[in-house]
Amino acid sequence: MKKSDFYFDLPPELIAQEPSQKRDHDRMLVIGRRSGALQHRYFYDLPQYLHAGDCLVLNDSKVIPARIYGIKEETGARVEFLLLKDRGADVWECIAGPGKRAKEGSRFVFGDNVLRGEVTEVLENGNRLVRFGYEGIFLEKLEQIGEMPLPHYITHELKDPDRYQTVYAKYNGSAAAPTAGLHYTPELLESIRAKGVKIAKITLHVGIGTFRPVKAENIEDHTMHYEHYTVPEEAAALINSARQTGGRIVCTGTTCCRTLESACGEDGAVRAGSGDTNIFIYPGYRFRCVDALITNFHLPESTLIMLVSAFCGRENTLNAYRAAIEERYRFFSFGDCTLITDEI
Questions:
Q1: Model pLDDT for residues 100-159, shown as the tens digit of each residue
Q2: Nearest Cα to Cα of residue 79 among 62, 100, 58
Q3: Strands (DSSP E) along the chain, which ranges?
Q4: Distance, CA of 300 to CA of 222 (rounded, Å)
């Protein structure tokens, strides 16, 4: 398939620049997975589409203030670093820009010497390995000088950093929010539990693999980068029990979807444990575990819209996106969402 098969025109004014006033008051376009039928609802209507015995899966990864700016010791040049993955021993895999200023051996000072860093290796994919020096606790230093790593298409200042975290975020490690989960409130989750829906929490630390543009014209030539995930024993038990008793597995976000499809066997049973996944899901993929998907609206020609197209069909997806544009839905990280289900 061609990358251009997943293109659509989006008016720039539909890119949400800030979160809505109430998380669960975002709009929700319900899409029939097989039928392509559409219903225009709000996220607070989600419990109406869930049933006792279903299992709702959430990604409890927490976004770290992963965007930091360094001053190059040799020249005084300013370089932006986005921390992607903790490699251990104070070494992080990062994206650096402009990259030509961050060659191997380059040294940087961050935040008036709160952190110091040296580029120890330039990887084949262009990312940098940076070894950091500091006094105290690394994440506390990041809190002092780091910024929430909002996508570059968001140009407005984020007044409340907590709005780029889910209400159930727990484990530090993401370079971007699992945005489908931003719509939940504690009250809505309680109402879902009250219906007899089980809630399983897994962790996938969102890295650049989720968002890196597809450059190859033939999408089969695109390679995803690895992201780390954990499926706890309790979560695996809840998911497998729901499947065995006829319940549906409802994933919140493409990150949950990719995690479960990576952690399950051919029979769809999920295995507990941790690992790294670079699974790339595009049309033709056979889903083994996921029955319904909650996800935001995604960028044209992105791996995310390809995953959605694999789940409910390319034509259904593009038709739904055209309808959302006509109805002036808000797109991308702070925007509205979709629920893709067999039940309409």
A1: 999 999 999 999 999 999 999 999 989 999 999 999 999 999 999 999 999 889 999 999
A2: 100
A3: 27-32, 38-42, 55-59, 61-63, 67-72, 78-88, 91-97, 107-110, 115-122, 128-133, 171-174, 198-204, 227-231, 249-252, 273-277, 292-296, 337-341
A4: 15
Predicted TM-score (pTM) above 0.85: yes
Judged on CB neighbours under 10 Å (0-12, 13-18, 19+), 63 is buried
Q: What's residue 125's pLDDT?
A: 85
One-letter identity of residue 267: D
CA-to-CA separations, 83 to 5, 43, 87, 302, in angstroms, rounded? 32, 32, 11, 21
- Please tell me the predicted confidence (pLDDT) of residue 210: 66
With contact defined as beta carbons under 8 Å apart, do 249 and 226 qualify?
Answer: no
Structure confidence by residue, pLDDT tens digits, 199-239: 999 999 998 766 678 999 999 999 898 899 999 999 999 99
Neighbours of 124 (CB within 10 A): 5
> What whole-number distance in Å separates Cα of residue 286 and Cα of residue 2?
19
Measured in whole angstroms, the distance separating CA 156 from the mean position of its chain's CA atoms is 20
Q: Say which residue the tokens 């504690």 belong to.
A: 186
**Cα 172 from Cα 97, distance rounded (Å):** 24
Please report the domains of the chain, with CATH numbers, ordered by start residue.
3-63+160-341 (3.40.1780.10), 67-145 (2.40.10.240)
Give residue 74's pLDDT: 92
DSSP tag of 161: G
3-state secondary structure (DSSP) of residue 72: strand
pLDDT reported for residue 273: 98
Q: What is the DSSP string of 107-137?
A: EEEETTTTEEEEEEEE-TTS-EEEEEE-SS-
Give the CA distances from residue 176 to residues 108, 121, 252, in Å, rounded to whole numbers and listed in that order.
24, 24, 15
Helices (H), the chain: 138-145, 186-194, 233-244, 254-263, 303-312, 314-326
Q: Which residue(s) pair with 42 in the sheet?
A: 27
Give every residue of the chain whose pLDDT is below 70, as ranges: 209-211
